[in-house]
Amino acid sequence: MTGNSIASILTGQHKSKAKISKTSSQTSQALSTPTLKREPKQGWRSHGSHCLTYTLDTKLTAPVKVAAFDLDDTLITTKSGSKFGRGSFDWKFKFDVPRIFTKLQAENYTIVIFSNQAAVVNAPDSKSLKILTTKLDDIFKHLEKPVIYYASTRKSRKEKSQHDVNLYTLFRKPNTGMFSQFLQDYQLTEEMLDRNSSFFVGDAAGRPVDFSDSDLKFAENLKLKFFTPEEYFPSMKHVTNGDG
């Protein structure tokens, strides 16, 4: 991705392959509207109703290698065997994720999870939001070091306007709003990214058994190397030195 294309993402002018109805002013407002609240240095933070993040109190320095992952059916699956988790603790790792993340962090990768969470209402009194943040807090307990997390969320159906719908769409994979927000939150530019070493892993790859190709298109829109979980996790030889 060129410097100009990164600049267009940050100003809300980037157009992904999924056609959406939006304006550059909406995107710019979504990514840069100031807030009067004091934001946490590390912990949970919402960018409006359309984006939830677990923020790390860290400054990323060039070259930044990004190891990006989807969450559900990529890093975790349900303990119960249900398609969707039944509460905050109905999850288990699909692979030896803690070991792999530790290895990536030792190789100076910045790990970022990008997750579509269409069922989560991003509001202070939201039950679905509490379930999600409790689940991620539990997952983080099993990791040696914390990781960055972004989720595309939504407003209550009773409250949302067309503006909210546009932001919701912009921040859902395969569109690149979450990645743009990540760049802004950590003050990153194209020149600071080691794009040749960066990659994205997700299960929605457009295969006959997949529900969509949103993860594959997300990676394509960002010009990142893409792997399915089955390709990436057994060896890690695609992106790391050593034997995995």
TrEMBL record:
Coiled coil: none annotated. It comes from the Eukaryota. Residues 13-46 are annotated as: Disordered. Transmembrane segments: none annotated. Residues 21-35 have a biased composition (Polar residues). NCBIfam families: DNA-3'-Pase (TIGR01664), HAD-SF-IIIA (TIGR01662). This is Uncharacterized protein. It comes from Pichia angusta (Yeast). The lineage of its organism: Eukaryota, Fungi, Dikarya, Ascomycota, Saccharomycotina.
